[in-house]
Amino acid sequence: MQELVDLLPQLGEGILVTLELTIAGAALALIIAFILGLGSRARTRWARVPSRVVVEFFRGTSLVVQIFWLYYVLPLPPFYVELDPLACGILALGLNYGAYAAEVVRGSINSVPTGQWEAATALDLGGVHRLRRVILPQAWPLMMPMFTNLLIQLVKGSALAAYITLHDLNFFIGELRKGTTDTVFAYTVGLLLYFVFAYALTLIMNALEARAKNKVGQGPSLREILRLTPVRTTGTEVRS
Amino acid sequence: MPDNDLTPAIEFQGVGKRFGDNVVLDGLDFTVAKGDRVTLIGPSGSGKTTILRLLMTLEEANDGLILVDGQPYTHEIRGGRRVAIPEKRRSLVRRRVGMVFQQFNLFPNMSVLENIIEAPVHVLGISRAQAVARAEDLLEKVGLADKRDARCTQLSGGQQQRVAIARALAMEPEILLLDEVTSALDPELVADVLGVLRNIAETTDITMLIVTHEMQFAREVSNRVLMFDGGKIIEEADPESIFTSPEHERTQEFLRAVL
Asked: Phi and psi of B43, rounded to 5°?
């Protein structure tokens, strides 16, 4: 136990690095997801085909290999691009999970009822406007639960960063094991740390999902959920 | 460009529409004069709804031309060939046409007011204040002035449809397409919606194309009825004569079945 206390500063560093990888990786993944997801739906082949190729490539290759490739291969000829380990981790996580999330974006946009597209056309709302003001606000709450899943997978995937010299949570667990020589203790603490980390993110994402749903008229608002007194959620929707 | 009261509001010239092997419309010709209220009747699958959808550019015709106010809409003849008109020009014609759908299709991410002012502000470019004032007038007209800030999902079907009517009218269309607007409603809510439409028919000179199963409403509101069967117009008359003494055998059968 004393070792755990001694290693606390390192734990802080580990959490910080994992948090950096998670937030920056997720932000990059989100941007890539929208670019590739919208690209996959484009009418012009010049946008659609490259988007599909990139999505399939990064979904179809291992995250470990991607990280190692960025870290070990990129500095070699003919590339000569040397990225620092954190950038490699963020880039690999962003590309890999961005490719998965692109499919979420594409699928959710396709799931918005055709009537919504048609009503927008009937009002002569142009392509970009229709997407931005009508379709995406409705596709967003559909994306959220799947994004939550991917975010948790991304957190766990970020553990690979320890193998390219980053001092993340996974690295800390290794240090703990070396320090205590108690393998059971170290890896059990490791399990708990990742679980707490992922669960905290789940709670945040669930709140964002509730907010997104409420904005399209489904379910209670975030304020109602966070209120301590129970809310009646029935009767918010009256049909025909 | 011809643009006077004698120019038809809508003109179909040899319009054909196929879905795969299924021929829905075949060389269809008809015109609708300005201010006409035309009801399209006929068995399902006879092509009535397709006509409205072609006019809203939700479907694209395989042959022929559609003119709105004498102007080619989706295709034109250039150098003896039928060519598609680019989206920018289609858009200018499209905004003169409004449509109300069977399933209302209000935007659930917007309030009632936002649904109504979205297109006037962003498509027509009128000021927000002016759009709000107009929306409030329209909500008054459809009897929903108190629902201005409500969420669409909190309204009944009949109320949603009346908002959808206000939303279409906010664009000040010259042509209004009504596609089975009461079919998705509970029976007790139909009267309100039809009342609103009757009022619009009486107080405006908007050209209307109506697809409906409400024959009584068709009789009161329209001045022309077109009977469709197999993608063709098989009978055309004023409502009084077609409903009391239909000539074509298929019309007689159809009206017997629905009345």
From this structure: -60, 160
